[in-house]
Amino acid sequence: RPRVLSPVDESFTIKQLSHINMIVANCSTPGNYFHILRRQIALPFRKPLIVMTPKSLLRHPECKSSFDEMTLGTEFKRMLVESGPASQNPEG
Question: Can the keyword Oxidoreductase be found in this entry's annotation (predicted)?
């Protein structure tokens, strides 16, 4: 019998976060960094937050987010899909 995954809702995410010892994140955009800090403050419990970001991204001119990525209705993205030349297969 195939295993069918149910859609992830907010209560599942909160339950999953409450059963772990710490949160480890690698934020590659300022927008994601903003959302991970905001989520850390908004959680009803406290767990250590470890942010592993390469120092080269701190002042890199290409590592930027628009203000639209940090307004109401946006949230932390668990995985960012590659875009641009890096996402294209050179052999395809």
Answer: yes
pLDDT in tens, 17-44: 777 788 888 887 778 888 888 888 888 8
Give domain status of residue 30, yes or no: yes
Q: Are 57 and 63 in contact (CB under 8 A)?
A: yes
Where do we find the tokens 């599942």?
A: 12
C-alpha to C-alpha distance for 44 and 10, rounded to whole angstroms = 13
Residue 66 is which amino acid?
A: S
Is 70:31 a contact under the CB 8 Å cutoff? yes
Domain assignment of residue 24, given as a range: 9-58
Global pTM reads 0.55
Report yes or no on 19 lying in a domain. Answer: yes
